[in-house]
Amino acid sequence: MTRYGPMYGPDLTFLGVERCDVNDPASFAGADVVIIGAPFDGGTSHRPGARFGPMALRQACYLPHDGSRPSLALRVDGLKDLRVLDAGDVECYSGDVDGSLAAIEDAVHRIAVTGAVPLILGGDHTVALPDARGTARAHEPGRTSMIHFDAHADTGDIAFGHLHGHGQPMRRLIESGAIRGDRFLQIGLRGYWPEPETLEWMAGQRMRSYEMTEIVHRGLEECLTEAFAIALDECDQIFLSVDIDVCDPGHAPGTGTPEPGGLTARQLLDSVRRICYELPLAGMEVVEVAPPYDHADITAMLGNRVVLEALSAMARRRKDLAGGTRWDPRQPLLDDR
Amino acid sequence: MTRYGPMYGPDLTFLGVERCDVNDPASFAGADVVIIGAPFDGGTSHRPGARFGPMALRQACYLPHDGSRPSLALRVDGLKDLRVLDAGDVECYSGDVDGSLAAIEDAVHRIAVTGAVPLILGGDHTVALPDARGTARAHEPGRTSMIHFDAHADTGDIAFGHLHGHGQPMRRLIESGAIRGDRFLQIGLRGYWPEPETLEWMAGQRMRSYEMTEIVHRGLEECLTEAFAIALDECDQIFLSVDIDVCDPGHAPGTGTPEPGGLTARQLLDSVRRICYELPLAGMEVVEVAPPYDHADITAMLGNRVVLEALSAMARRRKDLAGGTRWDPRQPLLDDR
Amino acid sequence: MTRYGPMYGPDLTFLGVERCDVNDPASFAGADVVIIGAPFDGGTSHRPGARFGPMALRQACYLPHDGSRPSLALRVDGLKDLRVLDAGDVECYSGDVDGSLAAIEDAVHRIAVTGAVPLILGGDHTVALPDARGTARAHEPGRTSMIHFDAHADTGDIAFGHLHGHGQPMRRLIESGAIRGDRFLQIGLRGYWPEPETLEWMAGQRMRSYEMTEIVHRGLEECLTEAFAIALDECDQIFLSVDIDVCDPGHAPGTGTPEPGGLTARQLLDSVRRICYELPLAGMEVVEVAPPYDHADITAMLGNRVVLEALSAMARRRKDLAGGTRWDPRQPLLDDR
Amino acid sequence: MTRYGPMYGPDLTFLGVERCDVNDPASFAGADVVIIGAPFDGGTSHRPGARFGPMALRQACYLPHDGSRPSLALRVDGLKDLRVLDAGDVECYSGDVDGSLAAIEDAVHRIAVTGAVPLILGGDHTVALPDARGTARAHEPGRTSMIHFDAHADTGDIAFGHLHGHGQPMRRLIESGAIRGDRFLQIGLRGYWPEPETLEWMAGQRMRSYEMTEIVHRGLEECLTEAFAIALDECDQIFLSVDIDVCDPGHAPGTGTPEPGGLTARQLLDSVRRICYELPLAGMEVVEVAPPYDHADITAMLGNRVVLEALSAMARRRKDLAGGTRWDPRQPLLDDR
Amino acid sequence: MTRYGPMYGPDLTFLGVERCDVNDPASFAGADVVIIGAPFDGGTSHRPGARFGPMALRQACYLPHDGSRPSLALRVDGLKDLRVLDAGDVECYSGDVDGSLAAIEDAVHRIAVTGAVPLILGGDHTVALPDARGTARAHEPGRTSMIHFDAHADTGDIAFGHLHGHGQPMRRLIESGAIRGDRFLQIGLRGYWPEPETLEWMAGQRMRSYEMTEIVHRGLEECLTEAFAIALDECDQIFLSVDIDVCDPGHAPGTGTPEPGGLTARQLLDSVRRICYELPLAGMEVVEVAPPYDHADITAMLGNRVVLEALSAMARRRKDLAGGTRWDPRQPLLDDR
Amino acid sequence: MTRYGPMYGPDLTFLGVERCDVNDPASFAGADVVIIGAPFDGGTSHRPGARFGPMALRQACYLPHDGSRPSLALRVDGLKDLRVLDAGDVECYSGDVDGSLAAIEDAVHRIAVTGAVPLILGGDHTVALPDARGTARAHEPGRTSMIHFDAHADTGDIAFGHLHGHGQPMRRLIESGAIRGDRFLQIGLRGYWPEPETLEWMAGQRMRSYEMTEIVHRGLEECLTEAFAIALDECDQIFLSVDIDVCDPGHAPGTGTPEPGGLTARQLLDSVRRICYELPLAGMEVVEVAPPYDHADITAMLGNRVVLEALSAMARRRKDLAGGTRWDPRQPLLDDR
């Protein structure tokens, strides 16, 4: 696998963490998390640009790119308390969805089998198939659940004559057996897609999809708590898929298919924090950040913070599990310093 | 009346619904809703551009423009379960407010008298006068109430030496007798306009205006419930006017006179849904979407979804009224599929 | 001090209020509030542009620039019920932080000693040092507390080899003795800065910093109420520092170092209102509005409204203190008109 | 007439020149040039925004707004060597083309009758009718010629059912007798409008229109020289109308109806310089600068420089006429300093 | 083939010309030109977005979309004097370059075999292969020459592991035998690609490439005249490929791989005019207009005018060939009207 | 000296060339050119943002960042045929002009004394003083001439109370004796600054400034040839200073003080090529690229190409001097391949 950075801009790592090479397992031996880019946007049904997502997510931060980010809220440094490496980008030709997906899955799987958490920077959501399958294949079959933040179910069947595209990965994932349909938790859906036939297919798979109306009426926290219980039932770990369009377009304009009425940035960050603190994470992706449609980098910055929030919460989870402690969200910032 | 699409871009219909001709009543016989554009922005006191609102609202959607939009939340298809047609645009010369308003009122009235709901795509808010009057004139006098979402009261008297402009339509409407002042419900007002004299005039008309402070302190749901009761008291139907600037500029930057501190997009969509589900709608307008100031089309997309939310809720209302059922907002998406 | 307006655009005043000259105390005798610009952005660690903040904040309003702004919510006119003047800008050379800070502090102090409230339009947050110190020096030592809205603590020590910059003013303020560390209230912090050593220094100063997690879990209102009690304990007045990046980037994209997950514009406006209504204000600043990164002027408009909200609440506070009345946020807009 | 600055932003003058009041002739007694804004864009057939032209043209300059601009090339100061005043804006309601045109013509005429050159900042090109007629009426009938830079002939007849709009002023001007058709020189036309019938009408009026093809093949200098000869034949002075869209969209994107293939900014500036240096100017307008579509203010800056180039050349013309000297464009900048 | 308009926006035709169906030859019997969109951008090596090129090129015009465009310069109406139809878009999945190219070539060939000129709206330049081959296959082998405007030679061999992409179509074309290498004329090349090995391959094919340095030093007109002679030597017709990035980024910012130092918009328009007036056109494409990177639509407008210039010149060529006349570029616009 | 990349984004080199460390002379032993960034914009009098110039100039290219750029026109690879290294950025605090200039001059001088050509990426034009002085000090006194492309003379005396700023470096340079006034060649000046007193000072220094009017009337080539002769008279090498605002704002919008009427991008590239091919270069800077005001990166791309053009011409000059050959600009691209 070739490093792809030089194509879509310079070769750099996520906020300056150390590099590794996905073809050289020794280079990431002992890593807790390996970040890898999937600069593919050939699967978008509307506005492209997510190919520049990895480049943008890696650098959208005003602080020094020094491989350190101490979280004010969680009191850990996700980039230092964990061993986080960056493997660069998978070479993806957006004109070749099949070849790109194969290359991505291979790379993700190479990471996951070492026990490291693959953290994929998309790219459009087509990459969810290789991301989650490459991860799940490294674990006991049927014991990886999915938590999926998105405005869209992404369970379409055929689009533009193809099985693969950014509206279909979740169907392919379930069909492939990589993820059980009844351990597939979707959060933030809204709008006018998919049509009833697809919803019926989803119901038939016993998926659990929280549309925004239910979230507004029941409360996001209650929905999450319920979802977590399902996710852990007969499963050992989760794959977390964050499509940035789960947020309202006011918070995340730089994306391909924005749908009004979504979560706030605050809600997304808090949800990701809860997931990575309360649940065992096997893999994760942040997708659909499309810089050509962004303004003042606010969508890229949000995506960057989603990654950091996950890493911080994973680090805090490890610390608390080891120490028998528990994080208190109500503790004042300067208390016990 | 000439189709106006070719002037401000190509001739297209709202998400691909069928066309009709406002001068040929047979062409929209049996329609439930007739969409019509009012590309007028000569009445704006500050940033223009709302003339491109109809064009933007019709096409700001990433899904196929196929005349179908099944609502995930409401389980109906507002474009198919209702008969929705698009009559194109009224020819509006922005340099001639009087002529434009007359042409708009005539067109709206032709639609309303057939029993169809006119759904007007503005244009600046000056068009509220012909929109609501053209609608109300088709019904029993004094029995149409108004629910008006806006950052501004739009009850000014004379501006730039004229009676008509985007800050004055609500005064003209009440003066004309088309809408009773005491059945005029305003939601979302804030900021520094109008001045006390105008507020006194409004109080004298017994209008009911919910400023954002009251909404924040009492809760939007409680305010809406109270407003609905007033709206139905001695009235048979409502006209719904949605000025997109009722939303916070973060959610709707593309408008002429943005005022910080407004509703979220989610709140607006949920409110429109409640109105069109719980109340009998006589007519509706979505105004003040100004594409030159929009970013990544997020304001146009929000306006498009306001229209769809209204149509979906109308369809669901009809279905539930017919079947004696009731929509449950807490029902999971995939339940009973 | 030279008027600086002509450098960064035309010479104009905040929404058309009258001018005064900071070197001619007679020109602002009897003023309640004197607005002054600090067009300095040499201290920004990342995106510059805040030098254009004063120009943008003064004019970002679609209403006539006529020196009058009657608040719908508070039923006072902050620009007319108070005597508000605009002293123009302090001449600031962004390449010379030391000289600029000295000039700003001198100007602010000249205003504060007359008993008028200096209201500074930044500029980057470096100016907090001269703004707050110039104000506090005009009052009894140790009796001015600080309420500081920001995503960042701004308590760094040395950056780029210098003591002064937009990440350090709060440390310098406390070190200078102008503001007591234990009367320093910070609201809205989040993200990944500063590092633990600085947090320990802050704890050592007995600062009270409300990170967003605490705010979300306890509620903003409860946090504010608690903070107000601290602010008034052994202090007579407060200095209010509003860094616009306390808001989420969706609401305030036009700033130098945006941090996702912040307050909504509505929350900021309501908070500023409470502070200026419930507490005695000695001085105030609105900083870090960076027009080059703004879209459709929404950040500048928010900053403009923060200023107006403060002025309106001060006017209402004075009125209610004088009349023994109390403002009711639940009162309908048209009630008692 | 009311000053209009406060509506579309703050009240300021062109680069800081002194103010005058068009209703108080004494205030501009002895003026050589009186600048006046015509913030009307109700006549645009496509993208609006030119209402903000006067505000943008007055301030689009990075130098101090100090009422002085020494021209490097012409060695005069157009703002100081001439007496240039700014009368503010005519109150224009874009929804009322008839009223706006009447108000503009009255104001322009008041200026022209004093012998001062009215220099109008548009606004869309609809204002050419009152601008040129208000000017010509102050001079001997039939002895004012027109030099008109534009991508479009603006000689349409009826549009949107009206006689007045930005595509028709030149026909109205000729019909009114204010300008002789055979002394109407158009430079820069191109594209696909107007249709042959209108061209025939133009030919019938014996207008002389230089389409870009002729300009490219013969050379701009030769065309100008030929045009100047016509302009002075039986005429005593000229009115210069500059529609910024005469320039290529690459040089002037911020306009309503950009047409590819136009002049460079350099060519326009040099042409305006020649006209104002070689010919006696009676009046001038710069129109169709539409800030909402501008980028980095480059179109507004170009318009600002067109005004300055005209003033500089007028000043140099006066100086050379008085001194019997002649400007040499090949003289090195520092020669004879 | 499915109409694709509804996917990337509404279904519309080029400036309102009539529709036809590429699968129904009867629908375009007798057509002179058939416009067809190729919304594919999976082959771009850097910035995507050209998939929206067809939609943008069809509507980027401020005049009525009425199927008529009388050219001022050429005195013909390219949309009416020729029979021009629009076949909509070929369904292209950007994730599948092979399938997309096959579908495009089939559609182009169906048009070309009827004798109509296929005029393809790209899409990225990958489509040149099916565009030119689909055209050439309809004519006698080896007798179609190519005139190719571009900043880049597009003669790469393998990129991202694939034969097809926007940097390689010209090599594939020559290899396929569709176009003779020694009748391949390239105009406007510049910059730093391709590398010497590829240039040697090109030289080996006896291609003739005019780099900008040669064009600047010899003059564009002389280069064109020379190229025309080569193009007609042993060939009967030409295919014209216009990559919008042949223009300088100042004139065409909205493209994927802009290269400074290119032609002006005026030069491109004049060149296209000469080609279509002086040479027999077999087919044409306008590619690499990428709306996400455009500003104020100036690149899309330029592309739209390139199409119109070609159509106008073809119409004038036919007229002059029929009448034995010759167009005179120096003739004044209103002469002989 | 600290590498500064991590502050204003990630740490990368110019198009992927190798790194060196300015404090470790061994790291750049044998280098022909050492690139170094000067991210300082505290000296700008108007729009800031040039601090991001080095980051933008290094990466604004769509080709692989592989340290190779074979020039089509010059048939050399400027990055490979010369030994070009990148020393990262000088740590510059924009709030401290004095400290920043000292650090820059030290770094530039360390490079120049080794015989390598320092190539500085600005930053605002304030850095010309340390750039040119640091270079000239490494050579025999009084034998380095200056060729300066700019819209502005940059010979002001005191601004904002300081000697250093982006309008004054050229006066400081001459005063310092680093560059002789009579070997100071300025190209592209225009507009309304500086005032006559400064022009007189310039004339007194016997500077030679080519204002755009002279350039247009005499031709750029003739002016350059004349300037070259002066530059080489009694001097051994030149320093080339390119302020990107020498180009017209249409070609270079992303800059602080754009002045309409400038060179085209093509003219600038060709001029830089001639200079670096015909003259011995001692040092060079590219300044005033301000990304916050850029669109679609076109200004950054132009600046990147200015650097490459210089390097390519230097490489070709060396080759031709060595081989006794001479480059022919009229040679066809594929000739002799």
Describe the structure.
The structure is a homohexamer of 337-residue chains. The radius of gyration of chain A is 18 Å and the shape is globular. By secondary structure, the first copy, chain A, is an alpha/beta fold. Chain A has a nine-stranded parallel sheet with strand order 1-3-2-4-9-8-5-6-7, with helices on both faces. Chain A contains nine helices and nine strands. In chain A, strand 8, helix 8 (265-278) and strand 9 (281-287) form a beta-alpha-beta unit. Chain A has a single domain (14-323), classed as Ureohydrolase domain (Arginase, Chain A, 3-Layer(aba) Sandwich). The A-B interface holds A 45-47, 189-193, 195-196, 199-200, 202-203, 207-214, 216-218, 248-251, 253-254, 256-262, 264, 293-295 and B 62-63, 68-73, 248, 250-252, 264-266, 269-270, 295-298, 301-302, 305, 308, 329-335, 337. Chains A, B, C, D, E, F: Mn(2+) binds at residues 125, 150, 152, 154, 243, 245. Chains A, B, C, D, E, F: This is Agmatinase. Chains A, B, C, D, E, F: GO terms for molecular function: agmatinase activity; metal ion binding.
Summed up:
By secondary structure, chain A is α/β, with parallel strands linked by helices. Chain A has 9 helices and 9 strands.
